[in-house]
């Protein structure tokens, strides 16, 4: 027997930090993801991003949420809660 009830979307709250990379041949320094944490609430993710952004080795931090469709596995574009410091531009996927 199968259930016809729709499966609820799952919300993920993420804190993601960045560090600067050394300049390459083109002379441009870049950013790379350093750490990524998942939380159960938006405020937890935002608080962690704010704390991480204050650390010496952190170039910047994002706190965002994404919605996952558990049936298809598709994930929404991020909805940013806070962006602190040097973070990459977001132009969508």
Give the SSE map.
Blueprint lengths: L9 E12 L8 E10 L2 H12 L6 E9 L10 E7 L8
Antiparallel strand pairs: 1-2, 1-3, 3-4
Structure, explained:
With 93 residues, the chain is mainly β. It has one domain. Helix content is 13%, strand content 41%. The protein contains 1 helix and 4 strands; from the N terminus they run E-E-H-E-E. It has a 4-stranded antiparallel β-sheet with strand order 2-1-3-4, covered by helices on one side. The protein is globular. It starts with 9 loop residues before the first strand and ends in an 8-residue tail after the last strand. The model has no long low-confidence stretch (mean pLDDT 90).
Largest sheet: 4 strands, antiparallel
User: Which class do the helix and strand fractions yield?
Assistant: mainly beta
**Morphology call:** globular
What's the helix count? 1
Number of domains: 1
- What is the C-alpha radius of gyration, as a whole number of Å? 16 Å
Provide the low-confidence segments as ranges.
none
Strand content: 35-45%
Query: Order of SSEs, N→C?
Result: EEHEE
Mean pLDDT: 90
In which range does the helix fraction lie? 10-25%
Q: Which quaternary structure do these chains form? A: single chain
The count of β-strands is 4
Strand order of the largest sheet: 2-1-3-4
In whole angstroms, the N-to-C terminal distance is 38 Å
